[in-house]
Amino acid sequence: MQDFEKLGVFYLGRSKTSDDLLLYDSKDLVTHAVCVGMTGSGKTGLCITLLEEAAIDNIPAIIIDPKGDLSNLLLTFPNLAPEDFAPWVNEGDPAQVAKEWQEGLAKWGQDGVRIKRLRETADFRIYTPGSNAGLPVSILKSFVAPPESIRQDNESLAERINTTVTSLLGLVGVDADPVRSREHILLSSILQQEWSNGRDLDIPALIQKVQAPPLTKIGVMDLDSFFPAGDRFQLAMALNNLVASPSFASWMEGEPLDVQQFLYTETGKPRLSIFSIAHLADAERMFFVSLLLNQVLGWMRSQSGTTSLRAILYMDEIFGYFPPVANPPSKLPLLTLLKQARAFGLGVVLATQNPVDLDYKGLANAGTWFIGRLQTERDKARMLEGLEGIATSTGQKFDKQQMEQLLAGLDKRIFLMNNVHDDAPELFETRWAMSYLRGPLTRAQIKVLMDPLKVTPAATSPAPVSTAPAPAAASKSARPVLPPEITQYYIPVRSSGGGTLTYTPMLLGATEIHYSSSKTVDVTQQLTLLAPINDGPVSLDWSQATPLDLPVGDLESEPQPNAQFVEVPSVATKVKSYASWQKDLANWVYRNQRLELLQSPTLNVVSNPGENERDFRVRLQQIAREERDEAVEKLRRKYAPKFAQLEDRKRRAEQAAAREAEQAQGQKVQTAISFGATLLSSFLGRKRTSLTTLGRATTAARGVSRSMKESQDVSRAEDNVAAVAQKIADLEAEFQAETAALEHTFDPQTEPLEKVSLKPTKANIAVKLVTLAWAPYWNEKPAWE
Same domain, yes or no, for 244 and 149? Predict the structure, then answer.
């Protein structure tokens, strides 16, 4: 077997033309891939081997699994023992199955050691939205305001709103058109207003806003004319029935839709998260897939650009999710991902049985196609049409007749790879999967796999307690009148509650702190604090303040209507108090604030402010992968001319050896004829002069001499070929040695990180604002969290 454990390549199988191993460059997956093949073609096995290779290369994946086949990724048994296979074998003898898997792996140069490496390198989990069979998933975060990067992009925000609203209405049975449907327009308008202002929502809050929208007009029409209150109540009831349904309760439990958490563990170990949705109804599948794709889009846009593969989004059986004509909620985010994800290192892999179900215009962004056995002539014709269109758009040569012949001869586990990064299509046989491919798992089987990972209620951490300062116990009244020199702002109300909204006077201080070191750190951090004010001996203590995660620009100049106000302490009514508090704030920041960062001694990279250890280690892995890919590419460019030169020399040497062999063979024949003629003359006793016979003998002797010389020439030519071949082998060994040396001697997941603590200078502390801030409370509970 050739060596397949090479940097940055996926071992997918063996070429049918050259018998070499098919090693797919992982960077090629950044331009996305599509896998097409009928049932029984080996499509699932190929995709699972691709995901196995990604896991071994520390690349995480989000896997959407409508059928339940991809959960087989958890059926990996390093010992290859019959008892490990037994619980999962449908029919037959587990011992025979274990033997078959061991022999199949050995044929492809794999064994239990490689399976163990796969299991140790990545974390595998199965999530079951709407069910507790696997790990449950909460969809509540899907209604949280998108990241600022999306809110500032009108097109991206509109895409997120459209997909969310269409998915939600589909779940309650409303087939809503984004332009004609009142329901769709109303919900979109509500989300537009709330999300644009950075305000989060959940479904109960959305129901309240449907009944009492924060809008007076929709377009140019009055709200009640466009959507009367009675009709809005019917929509609110439909949404309420959804929330009230006992079956919907499981959608609210479990881990939030946090893509970073789905891709990496707390220690930064890559994770393959499988979302099994086979148990869901069609509307529920579409709802969840659309929400998940939106979250992936938001995560993607928060990442830095890269040319290396960062993560994989894989979806099996995309029938109905990316059709050529209709526009389901899943199509728009998928199309956006195919167009934009390559810039962020996110590779999208889509698989389907039926080529006619694909939007080929959208899939023109896919750089790699894995094509297996197709079921009908219509499928083949559609496939050829799509490939021809892709070739035209990318400037590739396309031989339709040759491609048609290749597609007609495909057998099980034989695929045609059409990669825009290669010179020509490649026919190959897929390798044996390390995972046991037993078919779709039932919910009961998923439960067996995932129950050990579930946290019991007793072990669950208590709900977090708010750290916001408690409101002062004072009399409540109408809005107080203060001197005009004292600025006042109102913290926005972001949560709903019962009772009366009460504003409590507090002091808000906003500072800008610059931290720098000689080489590695140069950052500016915003710090906003909210501190209680007292009329006692110590009117204000900044050490009792609470950080406020709120941009100063989001402060409001007017309170909410019908609110009450706590009396302002007398010290806060004096203008000079604010100048004193501003000075105290600068001194407090100088004495107490430190920027605590982590540093990788190997890469000399420092964490960003607010970046936790997991995310920092994930970033270190990406930096190391980018440096590795760049170094490998430099090595390839360095050695390519040398290999080309030696291959040319080898070709010429082989041609020379062939010529010498041909000449030697001809001389042997001529010598044999000469000897034969001389001997024949002697034996027949023809009456010729002895001189003639002697001349013939001399000629024959010279022929023998020339024949020996030709043989020596052949030997030298063959030696020359062998010498050049040895030089190629030596150069290959040298290349592999340099490539192996690129492997980092450290593991970003376990490398001991150094702590960096920076203290600001007084000159680098700027107090931007010290003002009276009215903090809203619902029955002593902060209303801004």
Answer: yes
Give the residue carrying structure tokens 């034989």.
Answer: 414
Residue-wise pLDDT tens digits, 373-382: 988 888 888 8
Mean of the pLDDT values across residues 660-671?
Answer: 64
Q: Are 311 and 346 in contact (CB under 8 A)?
A: yes
Residue 674: pLDDT band with limits 50, 70, 90: low
User: Is the same domain home to 769 and 703?
Assistant: no
CA dist 160 and 158 (Å) reads 5
**How do strand 137-138 and strand 476-477 relate by DSSP bridges?**
unpaired
3-state SS assignment for residue 23: strand
Residue 540 Cα to chain centre, angstroms: 48
How many domains would you assign to the chain?
A: 3
pLDDT at 251 (0 to 100): 87
Q: Which of 582, 565, 584 is nearest to 471 (CA)?
A: 565
- Which residue did the predictor score with more confidence, 694 or 176? 176
**Domain assignment present for 42:** no
Tell me the C-alpha distance between 357 and 361, whole Å.
Answer: 12
For 632, the token pair is: 């490998």
At a CB cut-off of 8 Å and minimum separation 6, what does 52 contact?
A: 73, 118, 433, 434, 435
Residue appearing with tokens 């931007």: 768
Q: In this structure, are residues 71 and 126 in contact, taking their beta carbons and an 8 Å threshold?
A: yes
Whether residue 664 sits in one domain with residue 565: no
Residue 143 CB neighbour total at 10 angstroms: 19
Domain of residue 734 covers: 623-741
Backbone angles phi and psi of 586, in degrees to 5: -60, -45
Which uninterrupted H or E stretch holds 506? strand 501-516
119 in Cβ contact with 78 (< 8 Å): yes
How do beta strands 271-276 and 61-65 pair?
parallel
469 in a domain, yes or no?
no
Average pLDDT, the chain: 85
Tell me the β-bridge partners of 138. Answer: 256
Residue 761, classed as helix, strand or coil, is coil
Among the listed residues 346, 383, 296, the one whose alpha carbon sits nearest the alpha carbon of residue 30: 346
**Identity of residue 634:** K
* pLDDT tier at 338, thresholds 50, 70, 90: very high
735 lies in the same domain as 640: yes
- Listed in order, strand segments (DSSP E) in 188-247 are 217-218, 221-222
Distance CA(38)–CA(375), nearest Å, equals: 6
DSSP H or E stretch at residue 727: helix 690-741
Tell whether 629 and 666 lie within a shared domain: yes
pLDDT of residue 666: 62
Q: How far apart are CA 593 and CA 22, in angstroms?
A: 55
Q: Do residue 531 and residue 590 come from a single domain?
A: yes
Which of 221, 253, 285 is the endpoint of a domain? 253
Residue 267 covered by a domain: no
Contact 662, 762 (CB under 8 A): no
Beta strand segments in 230-280, E: 255-256, 271-276
* Integer angstrom CA distances of residue 139 from 168, 252, 316, 623: 11, 6, 21, 32
Q: What is the DSSP letter of 79?
A: T
For residue 497, the tally of other CB atoms under 10 A from its CB is 14
**Rounded-to-integer distance, Cα 53 and Cα 347, Å:** 14
Rounded Cα distance, 245 and 241, in Å:
6
Distance of alpha carbon 406 from alpha carbon 416, whole angstroms: 8
> How far is residue 292 CA from its own chain's centroid?
12
- pLDDT above 50 for 767: yes
Are residues 719 and 770 located together in one domain of the fold?
no
Of 649, 656, 652, 650, nearest to 713 (Cα)? 656
Which tokens hold the place of 671? 């010598």
641 within some domain: yes
562: left (phi over 0), alpha (psi -120 to 50) or beta: left
Nearest CA to 406 among 384, 376, 430?
Answer: 384
Which SS3 state, helix, strand or coil, does residue 315 take?
strand
